[in-house]
């Protein structure tokens, strides 16, 4: 018989698992890992409404994508174009970034799988006599290690030609040059920290759903058990 068990700790772990997976996925897909040095507007870049020059803009560069400004025939129209600069994996700008992409992708796939499974932990608390919370916590720990490896390797690629074109000639491995770090990099770091928090907190979720009070509710014949 399926018993639906909902506790504050198990629900918090489930929500954190989902948030972490989405945060890492969004960061990985974003082009805002590096914010390039300001590109000054040309003398032709004049705002017809104000008669003044447009503000300088900052192109951004991700692991496999970028955002830059493109000009149209009309001088007053400027659009920011975002998309992948690499049509396939081999065209990613640096071997270090290729390794970063692999490690991040592996970690994110594990996190997404755990997030999917976590939704069903209200009904299923064990698989083959193993606590599903402990198994998911172990997987989250492994995913966190993959994410750390990816984030450590990422700055080693700052010396590639693509990064130098955005960050200036002084950019090199672990040196940003004229660039600054974008929100995607910080989101990836924050998501990695939360991944390990989730891995540790999974033990608390397992304790909450297997407590004596839960067992008493089951023995009383209740199918829906909600506890603080």
Automatic annotation (TrEMBL):
Keyword Magnesium assigned: no
Gene Ontology CC entries for this record: membrane
Stretch forming the signal peptide: none
Pfam families according to UniProt: L_HMGIC_fpl
Family as reported in the entry's similarity comment: Belongs to the LHFP family.
Cellular compartment(s): Membrane
Gene: LHFPL2_1
Family matches, as InterPro entries: LHFPL
Keyword Cytoplasm: no
UniProt keyword list: Fertilization, Membrane, Transmembrane, Transmembrane helix
Annotated transmembrane regions: 12-35, 96-120, 132-154, 183-203
Major place of residence: membrane
Protein name: LHFPL tetraspan subfamily member 2 protein
GO process annotations (BP): single fertilization
Lipid bilayer topology: Multi-pass membrane protein
Lineage: Eukaryota, Metazoa, Chordata, Craniata, Vertebrata
